[in-house]
Amino acid sequence: MFEIKRLLQCDAEKLAKFQTQAFYDAYHTLHAKEDMDAYCSAAYTPATALADIIHKASDCYGAFDSASALHGYYILMHIPMPSIVTLPNRVFASELKRLYIAKSAYGTGLGNRLYNHALDIVQKRGVEGLWLNVSNRNYRAQTFYQDRGFNYAGNGPKLTVGNDILTSSYLTLKL
């Protein structure tokens, strides 16, 4: 049904549009539309999507249907963990920067497929752990990661969306 393949430079505009829609789907009940519009117009542009795709320390993959529509994606960043985030024995870990699926794909297993694909990538690179930050208000994502063995590792950064401030938590997983 979906083919998972590396995102290319030519996918930047499609990724930016998808990121905007995914953010709206996840947070539309928490923020005013004008705050969401302002945040997304700055955070999810073709230029920011392209920067993630071409970053030398990133692996970006998308799930495409037969018509080349994007239904989900993830971004792995192979960068050091923030000092607040630790794993046992100081293992080398990568950041699962984002993993989103289209609302229409909820319950289809696509999130699992993308997550397992990301795990394959990091294990092939010899990575021993994953870390991420998740909004404290994104209960669906928190449950997804906790069900896969991620553990709370500390308070994450705050995200300002208009007049609202979202808190987040760091989660870690030793592979």
Distance between the termini: 28 Å
Mean pLDDT: 94
CATH class of the domain at 3-124: Alpha Beta
Total helical elements = 5
**Residue share in helix:** 25-40%
Q: Order of strands side by side in the largest beta sheet?
A: 1-2-3-4-5-9-6
Q: CATH topology of the domain at 3-124, what is it called? A: Aminopeptidase
The CATH architecture designation of the domain at 3-124 is: 3-Layer(aba) Sandwich
Using the CA coordinates, give the radius of gyration: 16 Å
- Shape call: globular
The number of E-state strands comes to 9
The SSE string, one letter per element, is EHHHEEEHEHEEEE
Notes on the protein architecture:
With 175 residues, this protein is an alpha+beta fold. The protein has a domain at 3-124: 3-Layer(aba) Sandwich (Aminopeptidase), CATH 3.40.630.30. 34% of the residues lie in helices and 30% in strands. It contains 5 helices and 9 strands, in the order βαααβββαβαββββ. Helix 1 (12-27) packs across helix 3.
List keywords for this structure.
two-stranded antiparallel ribbon; seven-stranded mixed beta sheet; Aminopeptidase; 30% strand; 175 residues; 5 helices; 9 strands; alpha+beta
